[in-house]
Design goal:
Elements lengths: L11 H6 L47 E2 L22 H14 L3 H6 L19 E2 L5 E7 L4 H14 L5 E8 L9 H6 L7 E5 L5 H12 L4 E5 L3 E3 L5 H9 L3 E10 L6 E2 L7 E5 L5 E5 L2 H5 L8 E2 L8 E4 H6 L13 H11 L3 E13 L17 H13 L4 H7 L12 H9 L5 H7 L2 H6 L6 E9 L5 E4 L6 E2 L1 E4 L9 E4 L4 E3 L2 E5 L5 E5 L9 E4 L4 E4 L4 E5 L5 E5 L9 E4 L5
Parallel strand pairs: 3-4, 3-6, 4-5, 8-14
Antiparallel strand pairs: 1-2, 6-13, 7-14, 8-9, 10-11, 12-14, 15-19, 15-27, 16-18, 17-22, 19-20, 20-21, 21-22, 23-24, 24-25, 25-26
Helix pairs in contact: 10-11
This protein binds uridine-diphosphate-N-acetylgalactosamine and manganese (II) ion (MN).
Manganese (II) ion binds next to loops.
Keywords: Disulfide bond, Glycoprotein, Glycosyltransferase, Golgi apparatus, Lectin, Manganese, Membrane, Metal-binding, Signal-anchor, Transferase, Transmembrane, Transmembrane helix
Protein name: Polypeptide N-acetylgalactosaminyltransferase
Subcellular location: Golgi apparatus membrane
């Protein structure tokens, strides 16, 4: 049962019949019982980091291969084992403030130990993998801007606690110009307890997470860098499975599976439910995950073997540091947040590398419902994420960038800045076309999101009689589409009618409900056509299937009614919107 990687997986049946010899390296219990041991600094000898009883340090012995499974210690207390923290009404009320400030429940977080135990969320098979014990050392780079103290430090503690010490070069915190007090002096003092294992670099001005990560990579000492968000908890044996593919081939970037951590209760929400997913995108370049295609499933021998993925969520991944820098790191023109995962993914794949997702590496991440921080001096400089995406589309997507502009027509006219350095890099590295990438790597994108036909018309769809009133879905699907005052800013008032009759707002489609009232729905998967037709001569929006026209009702709702080209309530016109 050798895998293509030369890694061995003990099959579960065999394990049940005759339990394997205790795997090397062995894990010591905890530093708590070992604090007297000297840090010898040599492989094969017990090694202890820090004299703080709360920090658990794994010990090791050298072997050619090892199973790295850690003894799981049970603990008691709020949030232990990933169980939800329940707050009293009073506490929950107080928690609202922290929530607005950071996007998480601060009261709940502060109640939970920085060393809390978490459940093992991996597929059961993972316990039986053997990995090489000679693995490269890693710098864990954590970019942060005004993050909550306890979640940031819990991230650091989890890495220290659940990473074999001899594989951890350092945890490198990179402060992206935070201005909140506990992060300043107190943090410098706090990290002293890690005795040099945790470093801190501070930006002299706000750089955004993307340049901040590059700064981290440049300052890192490890052979491999692992990027981590500042509100994560790494899982059991998270690191060796990510390193093994990189040892095989340094141009492989590896990605862990991301479990959810609830922003209110801090409960751990396992992502693995028997199915594997990989990262793709729709044509607006919104990130999507899709079930692993059959081709990729069957290419592997074992369910939990790493598999290829076109892209990833962005935050958490391991990459050979030199390779990352040879690829130019991230495009330095990308600002604050967003799009960087496509830049790096397209670059890696098109320029000869690859991305693998690793089912046996799990890391919890707190998703928040909104961005709690501002954009700094870019706040009034336009749509940052769209400009980032435009840079990526212009450099890497060749003729396919057109589908992005069809889906986001306002972006075509945004100024994306100087791209000559990025284009020169692409030429120097002799990178393949985006068509090659779409056909050989991201082939599941068009199965779900077919190439888009051109827009026949797009803009605000306003009433001819009352030109200040526009079609509006007010939010994402499912929702009603009705009329409200035009704001000229696009968003939920930006409609696109394509040449195949699909009428869309963002990535969603306009449809009718059983009462023939207009509503916004999830577009039928794999379809780009629809029932709509705009009749220029009469300015009516006609629904083909029903042969009826959209009419505005007195209460500002929109319904399909019998077409009447004399009715002012049925007249509509597309009008331009501002780009931001
Ligand atoms: C996701 C990624 C995130 C990043 C982003 C797109 C995951 C789990 N998260 O959004 O890593 O790829 O998509 O760009 O895949 N930060 C700074 N400076 C800033 C803004 C943020 O250092 O100007 C830090 C922030 O404190 C955090 C990290 O960057 O540690 C990621 O930011 P986020 O958590 O707000 O992004 P997220 O998870 O919504
Ligand atoms: Mn995050």
């Amino acid at each position: 049962n050798e895998t293509g990687d030369g890694l061995k997986l003990k099959e579960r049946l065999a394990v049940v019949r005759s339990p394997p010899k205790p795997a090397a390296p062995h894990w010591a219990k905890t530093a708590d019982t070992q604090v007297e041991a000297e840090d010898s600094g040599e492989i094969g000898k017990p090694k202890v980091h820090g004299k703080y009883a709360s920090i658990k340090v794994p010990l090791f012995t050298e072997e050619e291969e090892g199973n790295f499974e850690e003894k799981q210690e049970r603990r008691q207390g709020p949030g232990e084992e990933g169980v939800a923290v329940n707050l009293s009404k009073e506490e929950a009320r107080k928690a609202q403030r922290g929530n607005r400030e950071y996007g998480f429940n601060q009261i709940a977080s502060d109640m939970i130990s920085l060393d809390r135990a978490i459940p093992d969320t991996r597929p059961p098979e993972c316990k039986h993998w053997q990995y090489p014990t000679k693995l490269p050392k890693v710098s864990v780079v954590i970019a942060f801007h005004n993050e909550m103290w306890s979640t940031l430090l819990r991230t650091v503690h989890s890495v220290i606690n659940r990473t074999p010490a001899y594989l951890l070069e350092e945890v490198l915190l990179v402060d992206d110009f935070s201005d909140k007090e506990p992060l300043k002096q107190a943090l410098d003092e706090y990290i002293l307890k890690f005795e040099g294992k945790v470093g801190l670099v501070r930006n002299a001005e706000r750089e955004g997470l993307i340049r901040t990560r590059s700064i981290g990579a440049k300052n890192a000492k490890g052979e491999v860098v692992f990027f981590l968000d500042a509100h994560c908890e790494v899982g059991y044996n998270w690191l060796p499975p990510l390193l093994a593919p990189i040892v095989r081939d340094r141009t492989i970037m590896t990605v862990p599976v991301i479990d959810g951590i609830d922003s209110e209760t801090f409960a751990i929400q396992p992502q693995y439910q028997g199915k594997l997913f990989r990262g793709i995108f729709e044509w607006g370049l919104l990130y999507k995950e899709t079930e692993l295609p059959e081709k990729e499933k069957t290419r592997r021998k074992h369910e939990t073997e790493p598999y290829k993925s076109p892209t990833h969520a962005g935050g958490l991944f391991a990459i050979n540091r030199q390779y990352f820098l040879q690829l130019g790191g991230y495009d330095e023109g990308l600002e604050i947040w967003g799009g960087e995962q496509y830049e790096l993914s397209f670059k890696i794949w098109q320029c000869g590398g690859s991305i693998e997702w690793v089912p046996c590496s799990h890391i919890g991440h707190i998703y928040r419902g909104f961005m709690p921080y501002g954009l700094g001096k870019l706040a009034n400089k336009g749509p940052v994420v769209s400009i980032n995406l435009k840079r990526v589309a212009e450099v890497w997507m060749d003729e396919y960038k057109e589908y992005y502009y069809i889906r986001e027509p306002l972006v075509r006219h945004l100024e994306a800045g100087d791209l000559s350095k990025q284009k020169a890099l692409r030429a120097d590295l002799n990178c393949k076309s985006f068509k090659w990438y779409m056909e050989n790597v991201a082939y599941d994108v068009v199965e779900q999101y077919p190439l888009l036909p051109a827009n026949e018309l797009w803009g605000e769809l306003r009433s001819v009689r009352d030109t200040w009133m526009c079609w509006d879905s007010h939010g994402d699907a499912p929702s009603k589409v009705d009329v409200s005052p035009c704001h000229h800013a696009g968003h939920h008032q930006l409609l696109r009618l394509n040449t195949e009759g699909q009428l869309a707002i963002g990535e969603r489609c306009v449809d009718i409900d059983s009462q023939r009232r207009l509503q916004l729905i999830y577009c039928p998967m794999g379809r780009v056509d629809g029932p709509w037709q705009y009749v220029k001569s009469t300015q009516q929006m006609k629904h083909g299937d029903k042969g009826k026209c959209v009419e505005r009702q007195p209460e500002e709702t929109l319904f399909l009614k019998t077409c009447d080209n004399q009715s002012e309530r049925q007249k509509w016109e597309f009008a331009p919107v501002k780009s931001h």
